[in-house]
Amino acid sequence: MLQMRPGCECCDRDLPADSTDARVCSFECTFCSDCATQRLAGRCPNCGGELLQRPRRPAEKLAKSPASTERVFKPAGCSAAS
C-alpha cells in the first residue's frame, strides 16, 4: 500500500493525503510539485525515476488505512539526478 508520506523531501512542505501537489517516484520518494518541476526537472534525485502526481486516497478509506506520519527531509536540499 502506498505510504503517502506527509512532506516534501526537498523543502519539507506539508503534503497531506488529499494534496494534489504531491509527486512520487516508484520508490515513493515524495516531493511537492514546485520542487519536482523547478528543482528536479521531473526526476527523482534518489533513483532517477520520473516523478508523477501521487494518487489521493478517498477520505472514507483514510480512517482504516491512514497516510504515513514518517517525514523524510534532506536538510541540504535536493539537486537533480544525474
Give the tags:
82 residues; globular; single chain; little secondary structure; 2 helices
Radius of gyration: 12 Å
Q: What is the straight-line distance between the termini?
A: 29 Å
- Major sheet: 3 strands, antiparallel
Residue runs with pLDDT of under 50 for 5 or more positions: none
Q: What is the CATH architecture term of the domain at 1-57?
A: 2-Layer Sandwich
CATH topology of the domain at 1-57: Herpes Virus-1
Assigned CATH class of the domain at 1-57: Alpha Beta
SS summary, helix count: 2
Give the proportion of residues in helices.
10-25%
What is the string of helix and strand elements? EEHEH
Give the structural class.
Answer: little secondary structure
Categorize the overall geometry: globular
Spatial order of the strands forming the largest sheet: 2-1-3
Mean pLDDT: 91
Q: In percent terms, what proportion of residues is strand?
A: 5-15%
Kindly state the number of beta strands: 3
Please write out the topology.
Blueprint: E1 22-24, E2 30-32, H1 33-39, E3 52-53, H2 59-62
Antiparallel strand pairs: 1-2, 1-3
Question: What features would you describe in this structure?
Answer:
This protein is low in regular secondary structure. It has a domain at 1-57: 2-Layer Sandwich (Herpes Virus-1), CATH 3.30.40. The chain has helices spanning 33-39, 59-62; strands at 22-24, 30-32, 52-53. The chain has a three-stranded antiparallel β-sheet. The longest helix is centred in the middle third of the chain and has 7 residues, at 33-39. The N and C termini lie far apart (29 Å). This is DUF1272 domain-containing protein. InterPro entries: DUF1272. Residues 58-82 are annotated as: Disordered.
